[in-house]
Structures are given as structure tokens and as C-alpha cells.
Amino acid sequence: MLKQVEGSHAVAEAVALCRPEVISAYPITPQTHIVEDLGTMVKAGGIENCQFMLVESEFGALSACIGSSAAGARSYTATSSQGMLFMMEAVYNASGMGLPIVMTVGNRAIGAPINIWNDWGDSMSARDSGWLQLFAETNQEAVDVHIQAFKLAEELSMPVMVCMDGFILTHAYERVDIPDQVQVDEFLPPFQPRQVLDPIAPLSMGAMVGPEAFTEVRYLAHHKQQLALNLISKQAAEFEAVFGRAAGGLIKSFEAEGAETVVVTMGSVIGTMKEVLAGMREDGIAIGALTIRSFRPFPGDALRAALKDAKRVIVFEKSVAVGMGGILAMNLRTALQDLPIRVHSVIGGLGGRPVTRANLRRMFDKGIQDQLEEPHFHDINMDVVEREIEREQADRRSGAVAENILTDVGVVAAAKAI
Amino acid sequence: MFQVRIHGRGGQGVVSAAEMLSVAAFEEGKHAQAVPSFGSERMGAPVVAYVRIDDKEIELREPVLEPDLLIVQDPTLFSAIDVFAGLREDGYLLVNTAKTMDELGIGEVVKKLPAGNVAAVPATDLAMRHLKRPTPNTVLLGAFTAMSDIVQIDSVFKAIERKFPGKVGDMNIAAAQAAYDTARAD
Fold this sequence. Notes:
The structure holds 2 protein chains of 2 kinds. By secondary structure, chain A is an alpha/beta fold. Chain A contains 15 helices and 15 strands. Helix content of chain A is 42%, strand content 17%. A 7-stranded mixed sheet of chain A has the order 3-2-4-5-7-6-12, sandwiched between helices. In chain A, strands 9-11-10-13-14-15 form a 6-stranded mixed sheet, with helices on both faces. In chain A, strand 2, helix 2 and strand 3 (51-53) form a beta-alpha-beta unit. Chain B has helices at 14-27, 101-104, 107-111, 123-131, 137-147, 153-163, 167-185; strands at residues 2-9, 31-38, 46-54, 69-72, 92-96, 118-121.
């Protein structure tokens, strides 16, 4: 049914349709509305056979889900930013134990400096954990991918995080088609755990594993992600058959076929990029885009196949490995290493910095001329940066970097609006 | 595509206004996108919300840089930020004030806009009268529907009812109607 709702609310409805049995979550901007809406639904008796566990923190929330999932209950949580960090021990626990928890990540930058706005820092901090990481581009996709996520997690026995850009998607009101219960039930069968705590057939889970077996356990987690590469495509096809629309999958092409230059990115920014790229094509420039929907497992083969005729790739990501460079860029370069493709790394949208048609066009124009520095920090204000560098060179007691920059940019929190 | 930027301060219902405008457009079978942009998450801090309305799917996700309609719920913002940035020369301006544009110090800006596209609505006063609360958002939405055909007043009423069922909704509808009638009369 078509509805005009906030992204968070659409996700809450999608999760509710998946018949979760335990929801345990702690609020944090920008995912708060998801868990508040789910709490309201549970309280009103709108989700059959579901318990909402109130906890004191994100660490508590995911730990509760670990317990409930281990006991055979379909379990769900959500977090962002600092919340992800607070639950990090449990994040690795959940994947290490192979528990099919689904978690929404409302992508938000990680502090310090404290920042409530969108970037991929939170999801990236868990990229090595073994969790599958799926990125949604629109709120419709967020709805659809959450439904796929439960099926994927349970089939593999591995947790899945569904990543959606904070504020840009979570807080955006837009038209969404919410599926009906019959369709979701047809697609998503009841949870059949591979392992379950049951007093009738007792076993232990989460045992200590020494040098004699740790390698094998880790290998099998890696192997599961390889299986996931096929499973994601297969289930996306099943989804389309049941719901009548395409969603999810490993990657998606936006006129990338045969393009000399391909922009590679993830998440909602593709929406703004499409118009820019169409304009460039009208100007005779052979450029297209690819979005990565599954970041973990990283779809190396699919990307190699899709990019084999490209001369140049411009990776645009809202993340940075401080001291190394672009994370998505590094992952892509590894996948493309035996191909003669020039890969540019662009890091943008950090901490919610607006990505606009205008600033994208300027950057793409440089990119097609191979004139981007390595890495290129999109829309950066180098005057302000240089002022701080000079300050630090002139004076040992140069002050706090973040506060100095804010003063130079002329922003005082109460006065900034756009 | 019709683009709207709503300026106000936390607690004045800027985000709800954007939501309701997008729902009103949806009720008419249009595509609409409404997104908030917060500074500090507290009462009194400047808040901006963006709305886009179109007949086809809206894929753009940048801030609204060239609004067709600017709604200013709090005129104290004129001295704090560049509220008018990017306002299109055939754009609409709706300001919550009992003063004149000259008294607000924005007379020069307003002169450049088409006559009939600018309205000063004492929305806080109207809100106090109908809602007993100084929340000007539904009043301003009602006034806007009198200025253009982008959304109809009935769609705004439906959006208000959806957001505020029951008595609160009725009072807001009355307030919006009053603003519509006043704007129509002008």
C-alpha cells in the first residue's frame, strides 16, 4: 500500500511485517524513530508474539538480541554512530557465533568531533566483523532490503546490517509502498535456527576456541560470506517474483555499460548523482554509475565484470580510513587490481556535508581529466585547513582543532541553518 | 519540480509543516519529499526543512538551494542567517509576522518578487487564537494554499487530520482555514 511516511517509520513497518519475536534497542539519532515506532507498535499489540526488551544501552540491546537469537527467536535491533561503538564487543560476538540478527544502521558519523549527521563511519567500523552489510539507496529500498535481510541472515546463520543514510533517508518523508503481510509471509518463512539453546536438548554456544580451531572457525565465517554472494542475488530474484519490484542484489548499474568513466558509490547519494551524470552524457561525456548494494560480502567478481570496459572509475564514498585513504576505494582497487583501470578516490559527505549537483559536477569534470588528487576530499575548504596548520606551526598551545575550525568557518551552532 | 524551504526555530513545528505539506501533495497523487535539517537538537535553535513536490519520482537529495517558496516561521532569523539564499525571482515568500516587510527590514528583497507572491501572515497570533499555542505552522500552510495551486486547502486539511487526529486536528484545520480566508481576502 502506498504511503507518505518518514523513512524510519517505513522501516519500522517493514520490520514489523517480518514477524520479529524480540526487539531490543536503545535510541540514538538518527535511528530513534525506528525503535520508537516499533515500541509503539508492540505496546499497541500490533506485532504478534513480539517482546520489546528495554535495555540500558546499545551494548545491552545487542547482547539481549544475542541471547534471544540463540534461544531461537527472530531478533532485531538498530543503532548508529556511537551506539555501534558501544555495542562493538557484541557486534563481533553475534557474527562470531553465527546468529542471524538483523540490525538497521542509520548511518551517522562517529565522533570526536561529535556529529549527528550522515556518513558511513559507523558501518565501516564493523566491516571486518563478519556481519553482512547491505546499503539502501531509497526508503523503498530500505523497506525491501530489510525484508530480504531476515531471510538472508537466517538462511546463512549470520547477522546482517541494513545501512541507510541518516537524516537523508531516515528522516525523509517520501512515498513508499509498504507490502502486505501475505506477501511477506510468502517470502519469509518462520525462523529455523541452525543452533538453539533448548533445555530439552542442551548444548553450549560461544565456547572458548584455542589455536587448534580458531582459524577454521574464522575461515568458515569468510566462506559464509562467499556463499552470500550467490544467495543475495538469488533472494533478490525471489523477492522480485513475490513483490513485483527489483530491490537489493549485489550491485546496480546506472548507464554504466560501455561507459569510459564509471562512478562507483553506495547509498542515497546516487539519487543526486543521476541528474548530473545524465547532464554530462548530454554533453557527450561517456559516464555512468554503479552502486554497490552489498558491501559485505564485497562483490568483487560482479564489479570486475561490470567494469571490464571502463577506462576510469571515480569512487565516491562517505568514509575515510584515517592514515590510509578511501575505504571503498581500497576495496575496489583490490577487486580490480588485474584490470587496466584508473581508480580515483573521492571522499565526500563526511559528517553530513551536503553533496550537491553543483559540487558533484565540478568534481566529475576534474575526474574525467584525471585531475583529482589522491585521495580527493570533496568540497573541502583548504583555506581553513591551511590556517589551522599555520596556527599549529606557530604555537605549541594552538588549541583544540575542532573549535578553531568552527571559529574560522564562522559557524556558531545557533546561527547555522543551511 | 516545486521546491520549498521552511525556516524556523526548534519547537515551532517546521519539520511538521514540511511533513504535512508533503502529505498534502501525496493526497493529490503527487510525489513529495520532505527532509529536516537540524543544527543543534534543541528548542530555539534554527531549523530548516525542505520540501520537493513533483509529478514524477524525486531522486534529488541535496538541500533546497533555489526555493520556489520560502516560508519563514520566525522573523528573528533574518538577522541570523541568509534566509533568502537562492530564492527564485518568481518565487513565493510567506513570513510569519504582524509587521510589514519594511518594518522587518526586508522591503528591498520583497520588491523584487512578483506582486501576489508575498504575504505577511500574523500566524502566531492566529495560532494563539485557534490553538491556544504559538505554533504557526498549520496557519502558514493554510495561507500558502490561497497563494498558489501547488496544493489545495482540502489536501492540507487531510494532512493535518492525519498528523493530529481528533480535536487538535480540528483546531488546526480551523486555524488553517482562517489563514486561507484572510490571505484570499488580501
